[in-house]
Write a structure and sequence with these properties.
Elements: E1 9-18, E2 21-27, E3 34-35, E4 38-40, H1 47-59, E5 62-76, E6 79-92, E7 101-107, H2 109-114, H3 128-141
Parallel strand pairs: 1-6
Antiparallel strand pairs: 1-2, 1-4, 2-3, 2-7, 5-6
Length: 142
Amino acid sequence: MEKNFYTHRIAVNAYLIEKDKFLLLKRNKAPFIWSPPGGRLLKDEDPVKGLQREVKEETNLEIEVIAPVNTWFGNWEGWPLLSIDYLAKVTSGELQLSSEHSEAIWVTIDDLNHGSPAQLDPNIGFKIEDFMKAQNLSRLFL
């Protein structure tokens, strides 16, 4: 296989948990959804280092990546996208949003189930079941 041949883009996201609460960010541009911090990797970037970079850029938080939670493959913005979602925890820093997001909120699974104070859009975003899986993993690893 040719060295520079790529079949799809890769994204990484952090189910960032602290005291049974997950960090959600509200996107500033369409789709205006609540989602965990994360983004697309740079060319040939290590997924864990890329996730640490993305979280730092979006939130000013340093994180420790604990374990993979979920993968997703589909079409995003006209491109094939593989997303790797990880369980992570904050190791340092004060939450400070980048210009990519308008709001940040820490939510429990119960909050997500009730759609308050933030509502997920499972048609184009993350699903409650994935947060539950991340929470179960956190009980094993944290």
